[in-house]
Amino acid sequence: MISMFNRLKYVCGDHVTVLPFHVWFQHPGLTMFSAGAKIMKSGNERPDDFESSISQAILELESNSDLKSHLRELYITAAKEVDVGGGRKAAVIFVPVPQLRQFQKIQVRLVRELEKKFSGKHVIFIAQRRILPKPTRKTKSKSKQRRPRSRTLTTVHENILEDLVFPSEIVGKRIRIKLDASRAIHVHLDKSQQTNVEHKIDTFSAVYKKLTGKDVHFEFPGGI
Known about the structure:
By secondary structure, the chain is α/β, with parallel strands linked by helices.
């Protein structure tokens, strides 16, 4: 059996990254690559060039900024470039659900530093969640466990919306049904955060549409 240290050395090649034991214990299927020492993907899937560039940027911040102690045990699971219109792109970074709160403690500073490195791109952090299909008559007999509410499509989409607008909070929501029967979600954001996130609301809408297929519009009731 490969020891913990040898396993890391085997996976990462010459670059040895020491991870807390609980990370490997809880996620034995994850693999870390030397080209992306801050990204862990399921199985043997390799990060693409964009994911590697995000991973490298976070690694540099861990090495050369006051975020070092916060980033040491954190890692990402995926990253995607999303076209948000007007020739602009956003960097959507996915993180493990158990680490989301730790990321959010430093997210404002981390986003600021990453946006400097990826000039012209808005950076967004979202927890990597899995949707379980609704049980049918055939599937109910195969599993006695009930589907957790946190794994339903509705809940996952709601959580994505909350992650998307952080550090702003959602204070209200309404659904508008158009004449063609399509739906648009109107989300009211905390007006105290308007100056911090207002310039990103078009990006929020485009990313949410890309991830869920749903239209959403953001508003700040009452102004600031």
